[in-house]
Amino acid sequence: MKKLFIPLISCLISFSGLAGAGQEIAVVQSIRVGPYEQAFEGVKSVCSAQIQRLVISETNKSDVISDVIKISPDVIVAIGIESVKTIKKINNIPIVYLMVLDGAAVSSSGENIVGVSMNIAPDRQLNEILKILPGIKTVGLLYDPEMSGQYANKVSDACLKKDIGLIAKQVHDSRDVPLALISMKDKVDVFWMIPDLTVVTPETVEILLLFSLENEIPLVTFSEKYAELGALMSIGIDAFDIGVQAGEMAQEILAGKDVKGIGHIEARNAVVSINVKVVKKLGITIPEDIISGAKKIE
Fold first, then answer.
1. How many CB atoms lie within 10 A of CB 137?
2. Which member of 72, 113, 123, 247 lies 3.0 to 4.6 Å from 158 by CB, making a disulfide possible if both were Cys?
C-alpha cells in the first residue's frame, strides 16, 4: 500500500504542475513605449501561461484581429486604449485591459471586458497631497463634465471626507481655462490638475504653471513631466504594478473565475515626485522622511 501511495503522490504533483499547460494569453499592445513595456513586464511576472505579444503599431489592425483569432487564446490582455478599441469586437474571449485612462468608458464596451484603469483613487491622492501640504483648507479644480465628471465627483467625495473645501469649476473648452483660473485667485490653497483632455493642453499647462508660480499656489498634477516643468508634485502610476494587477486578473480567469465576478479596478500604487526647486520657491517646509520617500526632481 505504501509503495502504491508514493507513486500516486508523485503523479498528482506532476499533474498539478502541468495544470497551466496549454493555456495561452495573447497580449495586444498599442505601441512600444516605456510605460507600456514596463506594464508588459508586470503582466509576464505573474502569468504562468504561454504569452504571445502583438504590437499594433508594427502591423495592420485587421491583421492583429485575425492573428488573435488564429492564436485562439484563453485570455486577451490589451495594453493601451488603441488596443482595446481594436480587439473589443471579439466578444467570446475574456479581455483584460490596462494602461487605459477611463476604465468607466471601457467597461461599457462588453461583458467580457475587465481591467485596471490608470486612475489612482482620489482619496489616495488626497492623502499624498496632505503629507506635503497638511495645512490646506481649499482645493481648486477644473474639469469638463463630459471628460471627467465622474472623477471630479470622486474628488469632491474625497475632500468632503477630509473636511476640505473644494472649488470645482466646469469648463467645456480649453479657452475657458484662463478665466476659470483667475476666478480662483486668493480662494484656493492648492490647484489639483486631473487628467482631463479639455483642461490639459500644451497651451493651458503653461497657463496653469504660470498661475501657480505667480500666485504662489502649489500645483499638484498626475504626470511627472509636469512636475519637471514646474508643478510642486505629481502623483503618477506605477506601470509595472498595473501590469501585475492585470496579470493577476488574467490568472484568476485562467483558474476558472467568471469574468463578471472580477470587475474594473484602479491602480493601487502611486509614484510621488516632488520638484525640490518649486518647494524652495514657494517656501514650503516638507519633513525629510516625506521627501526621502518620494522621487526628487532637482
1. 10
2. 123
> Tens of pLDDT along 29-77?
999 999 999 999 999 999 999 999 999 999 877 789 999 999 999 999 9
Report residue 54: phi and psi, to 5°.
-125, 125
Cα 235 to Cα 238, 273, 280, distances in angstroms: 10, 7, 19
Q: How far apart are CA 124 and CA 133, in angstroms?
A: 14
- Give the pLDDT of residue 11: 43
State the distance between the two ends of the chain, measured CA to CA, in whole angstroms. Answer: 71
C-alpha cell at 18: 502541468
Looking at the chain, the whole-number percentage of residues with pLDDT higher than 70 is: 91
pLDDT digits (tens, 9 = 90+) for 101-146: 776 667 666 789 999 998 889 999 999 999 999 999 999 999 999 9
Place of cell 502591423: 59
119 touches 101 (CB < 8 A)? yes
Read off the C-alpha cell for 191. Answer: 490647484
Q: Which residues of 248-270 are buried (b: 16+ CB within 10 A; e: fewer)?
A: bbbbbbbeeeebeebebbbbeeb
Write down all domains in the chain, each with its CATH number in brackets.
Answer: 21-118+239-269 (3.40.50.2300), 122-236+271-297 (3.40.50.2300)
Q: Which of 69, 77, 87 is nearest to 51 (CA)?
A: 77
191-233 pLDDT, tens digit per residue, is 999 988 899 999 999 999 999 999 999 999 999 999 999 999 9
Question: Using an 8 Å Cβ cutoff, are 207 and 177 in contact?
Answer: yes
The CA-atom distances, in angstroms, between 241 and each of 16, 27, 46 are 27, 16, 10
Residue 224, phi-psi category: left (phi > 0), alpha (psi -120 to 50), beta (remainder): alpha
pTM score of the predicted model: 0.78
